[in-house]
Design goal:
The complex is a heterodimer.
Chain A (H helix, E strand, L loop, with lengths): L9 H12 L5 H13 L1 H17 L9 H12 L7
Chain B lengths: L14 H9 L3 H22 L3 H18 L9 H16 L45 H5 L1 H12 L3 H12 L4 H8 L3 H24 L1
Classes of the chains: A mainly alpha, B mainly alpha.
Chain lengths: 85, 212
């Protein structure tokens, strides 16, 4: 998507932001978006919030099965009939 | 959930070795696989089925499928993709009552990332935020807090299915766009639209909640 207006407004930015974060914007739109952020505090805050939400969404790396589940699964594995392995 | 036990410095660092060991019936390899992937598989299942309990059940089924199917795993997809596909298959067949799966050809109605009323409608400032207050001031700590993460979890669970699936794979599990599209059978463009809608909605609802 390429906007016709030389300057990006906030309402357009909030629609383009995901494409921008994915690196999928045209060079021209990328430049327009970055230029807008330089001049717009609310949009800068908006983008930062989005980035933080993405970070906060991430599954805790250390999470694993409960001990009971783990034991049960290991038992399943050990008792799987040989012809299944 | 208990934290996963520390992995031994691993001859299983590589999927190839892990799969070979699994085929040989190596229980330690299976334990590593479970510790590594169980939580993520539960998140995938939850993106499909209604309840956390159903998700755990679906993943138990999936592990059975993994044990039986490891012999047939050809390595054409990554191990993760293969695991998630098994989970998805089991989740869907487990309870179509609960699995609210909508074909990806249906994108759903277009929706703005932010409601039009938050921007000036006319005049020289048309399209700009009505005021700075439209984007509340929040610290990083607030958004990254435990409370916030719990809220995000709920918000994601409440999303329309296709948005929920994409954001789960991309943001909760950290998969690439390519892998996400492969697992879900969706085009990159559609995946991006769904991700955009999902992220916009979660952000908006979370910020609204934290700022109130």
């Amino acid at each position: 998507m390429t906007t016709m207006d030389p300057e990006l407004c906030c309402q357009e930015l909030v629609e383009l932001v995901t494409e921008w974060m994915e690196g999928a914007l045209s060079t021209a739109d990328d430049a327009r978006l970055v230029a807008h952020l330089a001049d717009c505090e609310p949009c800068t805050a908006y983008v930062e919030q989005l980035r933080l939400v993405v970070a906060a969404s991430r599954l805790d790396e250390g999470a694993g099965p409960s001990s009971a589940t783990r034991a049960r699964l290991l038992e399943l594995f050990e008792h799987a009939p040989d012809d299944d392995l | 959930m208990d934290a996963a036990p520390v992995e031994p410095i691993s001859r299983f660092h590589d999927d190839v070795h892990l799969v070979a060991a699994l085929r040989a019936g190596d229980a330690e390899a299976f334990a590593v696989l479970v510790d590594r992937h169980h939580a993520a598989m539960v998140r995938v299942a939850r993106a499909y089925v209604g309840s956390a309990d159903s998700a755990e059940d679906a993943v138990q089924d999936a592990w059975l499928g993994v044990i039986r199917g490891i012999e047939r795993f050809e390595g054409r997809s990554s191990l993760t993709t293969w695991l998630y596909r098994i989970v998805i298959h089991r989740s869907i067949s487990r309870g179509t009552r609960e699995a609210r799966v909508i074909p990806f050809s249906t994108m759903g109605p277009a929706e703005p990332a932010v409601h039009a009323d938050r921007f000036e409608h006319s005049g020289p400032d048309a399209g700009w935020w009505r005021s700075h207050d439209e984007v509340p001031d929040l610290t990083a700590d607030e958004i990254l807090s435990r409370e916030s993460r719990t809220m995000i979890d709920r918000l994601i669970a409440a999303l329309p299915s296709n948005q929920r699936l994409v954001i789960t794979l991309r943001d909760v599990l950290g998969l690439s766009a390519t892998e996400t599209c492969e697992i879900l059978g969706v085009t990159e463009g559609n995946q991006r639209v769904l991700l955009h809608r999902a992220r916009s909605r979660v952000r908006e609802d979370l910020v609204g909640y934290l700022a109130s």
